[in-house]
Amino acid sequence: MARRTRTADQTNDLVLHDDASRRSSGKGGWLWNQAKPYASPWIVTGGAGLVGCGANVMWGDSPWAGVGLTLASVGLTAATWWAGKMTGPQRRLHSAITVAAGTSWVTAAALSGPLSGPLPDLYLMGGASLALSWNIRKVMRFNDTDTASSDSDKGLLEKVGLARTKLKNVQVEPNRVTVPYELPAGELTNDDVAKAIPRIASALDVPTTAIRVQHDPDSARKGQFVIVPEDMLKTPTVWPGPFAPGESVAVPLRIGVYDDGSDLVLPVLDAIHILIMGMTGSGKTEGALDVLFELLSRKDVVVWLADAAKAGQDFQPLLPAVDWAALDTPSAGAMIAAVQAVIPARTAWLRDHGYRAWEPAAAQKQTSPKHSCASAGACGCPGMPYLVAWMEEAAKLLRDLGDDVFTGIAQEARSAGVSLVVSMQRASGYQLSTDTRASLPAAMCFGVRGDDAGFALPEEVLEAGANPAAWGNKRKGYVYMVSAGVDEDLYANPARTFWTGPSGVYEKAAAWIVQQFAAVRSPIDPVTEGAAARVAGDLFTNRQARAGSPAAPVTPPVLSEEQESVQAVAALVDTEDAALDATAELPAVGHNTEIPAAKPSTEEARELLEEMVSMLASVGPGVVAVKDLKPYLEQIGRDRSWVSKEMKRLAEEGRLAPTGEEGVYRLVPVLAGV
C-alpha cells in the first residue's frame, strides 16, 4: 500500500508538470511531459548499445576482456536477483531477466562487434521489447483498478493480519489517500480491520490518528481506508471571526478546521445537548470560547452560564454578553432549578403558538395567524429566543448537587428550544449518571487519558480510528466531534478548534464580540424570565448586578429581630451541641410543673413545617435552612433531626430543591403556593 501512495503522488506531480508545460511550451511541451515518465527504459536501451560499441573498440581483440565481461554479466544478474528479495517475485524476476539480457548482449557485442551476426536484430527487437515491457508495467501501475495483485500490498496486508484483502480504486487528494477494501468472505470482518489499525500505522510509519476506517453500512466486509500522512493541524488556525454574524442560531457554528482543511461546524439545533470532555491542558476551554463567540454573535439565542468551580475565570470578558452568569454553587443550583422550571413553560408557549419544536420564527414577534395564541388573527406576542444552558466544569456541580441533576433537563428540553452543554474533564459513571450521558447525543472529545474517550465517543467511532488518548494534553485544541447534522464519515477525523490568541488578544476579541453585537442579541423572553424568577428569586432577578463580581455572595434574606437573635446564638453553639434546642426552657422544680400541650400528630406537624418553610423562604431569596426552623421546633413538636428528614423528603418529592449547601433548600412553585 505504501508504494501505491508514492505512485499516486507521482501521478499528481505529473499532472502539475503537465499543467505548467501547457502554459509554457504548448502542445509539444505537453507531449514531452506525457512521454517523459516512460523514457527511462528507452534511454537505458540506447545506453546499452553505446556501451557495446565502446567495449568492442576497447576489448574486441582481448580474450581476457571476454572472460571479465562474462563474469561481470553473471555478477550483475546475481546482484539484481539478490537486491530484489525485498520486492515482489514478479518485479524481481522481471529485473533479473532485463539485466541478464542486457549484459549478455553487451558482452557479445564487445567480443564480436555490435553489427555481427544476429546482434543488430537482437538489439532492435529484444531491446525494444524489454523497454516496452517496463512501459507496460508503469502504465498498469498508474491505471490498475484492482491493486490486489500488488505484491507489496499483499506483503503489507499479510503482516497486519489482513491477508487476501482486496484493495482497489485508489483515490488521491492533497495529503489524503482513500483506499477501498474488500475482505475475504467468511474469513474477516470490519472489526478485524479496526483492530489492525495500529499495525497498519506501524507498517506505513505514520501515527495511528493518521489512519481511519469508514465501514460500508451495507456490508460487514467492505469499507475504505483514509490515510492522512501529514498532520496539517500542527499549526493552529487563528480565530477568523464570526461565521454568520447577526444570523440565527439555526446556522451551524464554525469552531475550527478538520485535518483536510474543511470547516469544523457544530449544528446546535441538531446537536441539542452537548458533552464537552477533555483533560487539563487539552484545549477544552479554547473550544468553549469558540462556541461562545459564535453563540454571542447570533440574534436569537440567550446564554446562561454556570461556572461554580472557577467563578467564571476563563470567561470574564464575555460575561457582559451572557444573560445569566452563575458563579457559585448556590447560584448554579438555582440555575439548574430554573432550567427545569422553564422547560414546561416554554413548551406550553410553543404549543399554544402552533410550533411542534423551536424554530427561528419562534424568536420573532408573533404576527402570523398560523402562530397565534389568540382565537382569531395574530396575537402579537413577543418571540422566544433559543436558550443555551452552559454548565462549565460540571463535575463540581455533580458532586455538590448529585449525579442526576441534569437528567430531567436532558430528557425533556428537546422540544422546548433549550440546549444543555455539559463541560467536564471526565464524564465517568461515578460523576455523570448513565441516563444523563445517554441523553447527551452530541460530544466534543479533546485529549484524554487511557480509555476515557469511551465516556464521550461511540464505540463505532473509536473502532474507526478515533484515538484522543494519543494526544492527551500534548495537542491543545485537537478534538473529535460527533453530532447529528454532521457527516458520519467525519466522526473519526481529527479537527482542531480555532486559537483565540494569547492573553490580551483574547480580551480584545471578547470585548469586540460584547460591544459589536449588543444590539443584535435578543433579550430574554417574558415566559422564560417569569418561570426562572419564580424559582430562583433574587438570584435571577438581580443576575446582571451580580455578574460583575465573580464571587458575589448570596443576598441574605431580610430577617426579623427574633430570627437574627436566634442565628447569632446558633453561630456560637459548638458543633457537637448543634442538635440541642438552645431555646428550650428548663422545667420548673417541684409540684407546680405545667403539663405540656398535646403533641401534634404527624400530619399536623408536616402541615406546620410546610407553613414555616414557606414563611421563612418568602422573606429571603427563596431559600430556607434547617437551622432557621430551630425557634419553631416546640411548636411543631418535633426535634431537629425529624425536621431535617422531612425537608429531605420534600426535596425528594420535588417540592424543595437542594442548593448544594448542607441543610439548605430552595422553594419551588409547588410549595410556594401552599
What would you say this structure looks like, in words?
Residues 261-455 form the FtsK domain. Helix 4 (89-112) runs antiparallel to helix 5. Helix content is 44%, strand content 12%. By secondary structure, the chain is an alpha/beta fold. A hairpin with a 6-residue loop joins strand 4 and strand 5. The radius of gyration is 38 Å and the shape is elongated. The strands form three sheets. The protein has a ten-stranded mixed beta sheet. It folds into four domains: 39-139; 147-227, 2-Layer Sandwich (Threonyl-tRNA Synthetase, Chain A, domain 2), CATH 3.30.980.40; 253-362 and 386-547, P-loop containing nucleotide triphosphate hydrolases (Rossmann fold); 561-584 and 597-672, Arc Repressor Mutant, subunit A, CATH 1.10.10.
Topology:
Elements: H1 2-35, H2 40-59, H3 63-83, H4 89-112, H5 119-143, H6 151-159, E1 166-167, E2 171-173, E3 176-182, H7 190-204, E4 211-215, E5 222-227, E6 253-258, E7 263-266, H8 268-271, E8 274-277, H9 284-295, E9 301-306, E10 324-326, H10 329-352, E11 386-391, H11 394-401, H12 407-412, E12 418-424, H13 434-438, E13 442-445, H14 459-463, E14 478-482, E15 495-497, H15 505-516, H16 526-536, H17 538-541, H18 543-547, H19 561-572, H20 602-618, E16 623-625, H21 633-636, H22 640-652, E17 656-658, E18 664-667, H23 669-672
Parallel strand pairs: 8-12, 8-13, 9-10, 9-11, 11-12
Antiparallel strand pairs: 1-3, 2-3, 3-5, 4-5, 6-7, 6-15, 13-14, 14-15, 16-18, 17-18
Helix pairs in contact: 2-4, 2-5, 3-4, 4-5, 10-16
Domain FtsK: 261-455
Organism: Streptomyces mutomycini
InterPro entries: FtsK/SpoIIIE/SftA, FtsK_dom, P-loop_NTPase
